[in-house]
Amino acid sequence: MTVRVRFAPSPTGYLHIGSARSALFNWMFARKHGGQFILRLEDTDQKREVAGANEAIMRDLRWLGLDWDEGLDIGGPAGPYVQSERAELYREWAGWLVEHGYAYKCFCTAEELEERRQAAVAAKQPFVGYDRRCRTLTADENAVREAEGRGYVIRFMAPLAGETIINDAIRGPITFHNEQIGDMVMLKSDGLPTYHLANVVDDHFMGITHILRADEWISTAPLHINIYAAFGWQAPVYAHLPLVLDPSGKGKLSKRTQAFDDEGHEVFVKVEEFRDAGYLPVALRNFLANVGWSFGEDREKFAMEEAIPRFELEDINPAPSRLPYSKLDWLNGQYIQEMEPEELARAVRPFLERAGYAVNDEALRSLMPAMSVRLKQLREAVDFLAFLGPDEDGVALTAEDLTHKKLPHTEALTAFREARDFVRDGERYNLEAIKEAFYAIGERYTSNQKAGSFLGLARLAVTRQKVSPPLFESMVALGRQRALARLEEVVAILEASG
RNA sequence: GCCCUCAUCGUCUAGGGGACUAGGACGUAGGCCUUUCAAGCCUAAAACCGGGGUUCGAAUCCCCGUGAGGGCACCA
Asked: What ipTM is given for this predicted complex?
């Protein structure tokens, strides 16, 4: 039997990082078994419709490298994989359930239900779902209501006694008392199905063999199993994935509630936010695979090709977890360090351009070896390379900033003058030549004959940044003219304070 | 309120009765290196939620607590 799994997001307008983890696990499972990974849109809630939502989801999945074999955008019209386009099919099967005595029409309005619910709560009655009032309507009573033109929903007739057991691939058997399962709505009054019906019908006709979905679906799993049973269809294997918690660990990670870390910084929730910050897809994938699952052998960093053969549902940790964001930074940094200078330059360039930097390829490339060990997120390059950006000022320097106890004022002035002369008149202006000249100057004028303190001051003088890439690389990237201008300013500052 | 799930360092995890003085990673602290910041290397602190069982022996199995989370919609 070929494994067929699906990722079926609802069109919220973005891909949630927790959903991305579910998608990743589905994808890994499909790839491991040489099966199919299917992308389907669960868009049966008209109130929630967001324009362009499926494009955003597809873009982010593709960016993450999670390619699907069937579904949205694959060969031919997407219709079969968009639930709103299949309304007729669900209507037929909802009808089938009614005809065969597994479901009934319910004429209670939303307002009535709300009232009764409030009343139950007020009376401190144990809260249960729908009170099943319409379940016992006779055929005649039904006919009267329909003749009156009253709208209705179709509700599933949950068994009133007994137990339903789901055999979860991660958690083992989970037993539910059937009286706990409400008579859930299958078909809404707008004629569209609820998740429960659409999901079961689609999974059946799409031949889904395994359902890997979030923990929050556990409570409705027995309902789904009962629907399969009513239809006489074989239910797929269920595996309920652990939830991704918000940073406080106090609830599901969501855009709306406390997506803030201990320091109060907002934390990323949408995949696009991770991309915009400059996380690499390889890093994000690796990171996500480490949450709820682990590679083994004490290894944290691995390629998907290595991970896929080892992926087993049984190994998934059932406990919910928060995202270790700082570990993502580390991982991303690791992957950035592995990039070739050209590759990194290409990746960093869009971030700089967006910030208005006009940097030529060569200058950028020359900085990459120095940058690769410093970046956690690619966007950090913008601040790091501010001396190349549109804002030329940087930190304001005083004479005091330009001296050091090993290099007092007089010596500093002489050293900077020589440095300026070298930049202005030197035969060569490249990494080696600059290095040689600046070391020599530094060793000559510092009291301990070590270039260090001078180099530090020179770096500050040239980049105007407290934190920046190393001096020589920065000078090359900045170019002779701009470097000269900055050294001249520094000399002037020192002269003026003489 | 009812039902369900879960529980190992701060965090992510390894662990499936003896190999556990509980391993790894991130983070943190200290050190080395050093032109800033990093990177790299070295070192350190840091956990089996509690109580009962079962067993010669429990982080591992069972029960009861406790805590946390999820669900109880004409949302998914």
From this structure: 0.96
Task: Measure the CA–CA gap between A119 and A102, rounded to whole angstroms.
Answer: 29
Residues, chain A, total? 498
pLDDT tens, residue by residue, A235-253: 999 999 999 999 988 899 9
Q: Please identify which of the residues A255, A301, A327, A376 carries the catalytic annotation.
A: A255
Q: Which residues of A123-147 are buried (b: 16+ CB within 10 A; e: fewer)?
A: eeeeeeebebebbebeeeebeebee
Instruction: Report how far apart, in Å, the C-alpha atoms of A217 and of each of A16, A175, A203, A279 are.
Output: 17, 14, 15, 30
Q: How far is CA A39 from CA A9, A162, A228, in A?
A: 8, 35, 21
Strand B proximal to A166 Cβ, under 7 A:
no
Q: Is A255 a catalytic residue?
A: yes
> What does the block give as tokens for A190?
């707008």
Q: DSSP states of A389-443 as a string?
A: SS----S---GGGG-BTTB-HHHHHHHHHHHHHHHHH-S--SHHHHHHHHHHHHH
Q: How far apart are CA A193 and CA A191, in angstroms?
A: 7
State phi, psi for A374 to the nearest 5 degrees. Answer: -105, -20
